[in-house]
Amino acid sequence: MPTTIAPTPDQPGAPRQSPLARRWLRTGSKILAGAVLAGLLVYKLKFTPVPVSAHQAALGTVTAEVMGTGTLEARVKTVISPRIQERLAEMFVDQGDPVSTGQLLARLDDGELKRQVEVSEAALASAKATADRVRVDEARAQAVEQQAQLDYKRVSGLLAAKISSEAEMDKAIEQLRVAETDLLRARAATVEAHQQVVTAEKNLGYQRERLSFTQILSPYDGLVTRRDRDPGGVVVPGSSLLQLISTNELWISAWVDETAMVGLATGQVARIVFRSEPGRSYRGAVARLGRETDRETREFIVDVSLSELPANWTVGQRAEVFIETARKSSVLLVPKAVVVWRHGKPGVFAAAAGKARWREIKLGLEGGDKVEVLEGIKEGEHVVQPSQRGALVDGQRIKES
Fold it and tell me: Fewer CB in a 10 Å sphere around the end CB: N or C, the chain?
């Protein structure tokens, strides 16, 4: 029996498909392909294990710290400057030199001031000699006055006995008055001479003090951080010769965000990490809290004293300060990186029978890369996070790496 071959759409005489049918055919193909891809994706998500990093919830110690960045500063620092205008004759110290209290740092030209001291000493000697002379004059005037008193009394007695005359009496009175006046003048001269001695002594003290200003001494034990002048030039009061710091107390002046203010107090333990030694921490303590916040950065100064300095240090070098505000021991800890927030609530993915199961947890103290868990998981449980970028879903199969 002969075989009948049906014509294809492309063959002559074959029935042609309408545009609507072709459109539906294409749409159906796309829907089918999408469904297949969705099915493959669902299969992969549901059945293909996702590599994860696992962390065991374990007991440990957590320390909460407030971090600030600052510089090494001296609590006491001084600009050494002259108190008088004079030529700088000598400098005895240089930058980096340690100094002790009373050590001679610099000397000004003292030739003119020495001569002024010598003049003042001569003026004092002259005033003292004058005072000695007027004291002798006062003693002489006092003796003359006493003799005049005796003569007056004697003539008065003779006049009462009608032995002496009125003329002798008048002469005795006159001599007594002259003697009393001379004594008053001598006493006034003595007071004036004493005042001149006092003035000369004060002037000598003033000139000697000015002479002492040519010797510039260290006010305390410290370190010269900068030298600003060299010998030969004329210096004036207030101009900087040296910059000096006290090495008795150095601290880190760190800028801390104002949001951390409530947890800070003087005496809190701190650790300091200098950028020159990033692998080492130095112990310290909060010495002083600033009382003014920068209006631009919203940070304030916290001064942290150091119990030890690096072998090589410079004033102004940078450091990070970590101030301990709280500490708990024997608490359940997990890495902060495994905490996932959902709808404003914290939780973790716990490993259970090869799957990631979402657990809502209650957080406690945070410190470093650890966080305390108060509720939600138990000690020894494994919490996981994806080894690569991405997010886990509840019930997803996992493979711990």
Answer: N
